[in-house]
Amino acid sequence: MSAQQLNLDTIANNLANSSTAGFRQRRLQFQDMIYQNLVTPGAAQSQQTVSAGLQIGLGTKSAATEVIMTQGDLNQTNNPLDLAIQNVGFFQVSMPDGTIAYTRAGSFHLNNQGTIVTTDGNPVLPNITIPSNATAVTITQYGVVNATLAGQQNPSQLGQIQLATFVNPGGLASQGSNLFTSTLSSGDPVLANPGGTEGLGTLQQGYLENSNVDVVTEFVQMVLAQRAYESNSKVIRAADDMYSQVNNMAR
């Protein structure tokens, strides 16, 4: 019942973030617990026969929460600083403590210095500053940032957005605020330009990636978790009734 409660908490978190840009759903994984060996499998019952064993399982436990890294749907916003990654990759974000975090949420804007930052004000790496006299900003699918300045006809190149990828992106640690940090499980980040030979995805300007949570599937999983919880509670009541009858017979 405790394991199913954690399962329900995971489903609730997925549903709560079904509208969070760049969110990656999680799935709880279970493991069976230790077994009581009443008769060890392979034990000799006689010179001619071998026992198949008699083992009693002691339940289940929560083992891990797996991050599902499937692509979310793209939502057109027409905001020139909204970026969506089509396929593999993460944006790099410089944190206040000097560490680097990673995100799929490309809802960026400018701070008072003209630097491209996240919704929390953390700079996107590499740092790119848009001049205050820029009349238009374009970001190509390969991450090249161009701006048309007042009085100029041809755009000026301001910088290049790089993406990060990991050997095991499912091993990233969620930090909240749409951010991940690398771990020993994820491996070190591999940096490259979008759409290059390294296999990273391309950028879509004026789009945001929606959460990859399938609301219908999560509701189905919620019902299954509730039914499993109810079934386990009935087993506990049935076992309690059986022990009660045994005690009454002893009297």
TrEMBL record:
Domain Flagellar basal-body/hook protein C-terminal residue range list: 204-249
Chain ranges of the Flagellar basal body rod protein N-terminal domain: 1-24
Pfam families noted in UniProt: Flg_bb_rod, Flg_bbr_C, LlgE_F_G_D1
InterPro entries on file: Flag_bb_rod_N, Flagellar_FlgE/F/G, Flg_bb/hook_C_dom, FlgE/F/G-like, FlgG_G_neg, LlgE_F_G-like_D1
Keyword list, A-Z: Bacterial flagellum, Cell projection, Cilium, Flagellum
Signal peptide as annotated in the record: none
Matches recorded under SUPFAM superfamilies: Flagellar hook protein flgE
Subcellular location(s) per record: Bacterial flagellum basal body
Any one biological process term the GO annotation gives: bacterial-type flagellum-dependent swarming motility
Flagellar hook protein FlgE/F/G-like D1 domain segment(s): 84-147
GO cellular component: bacterial-type flagellum basal body, distal rod
Assigned protein family: Belongs to the flagella basal body rod proteins family.
Name of the protein: Flagellar basal-body rod protein FlgG
Natural source organism: Acidisarcina polymorpha
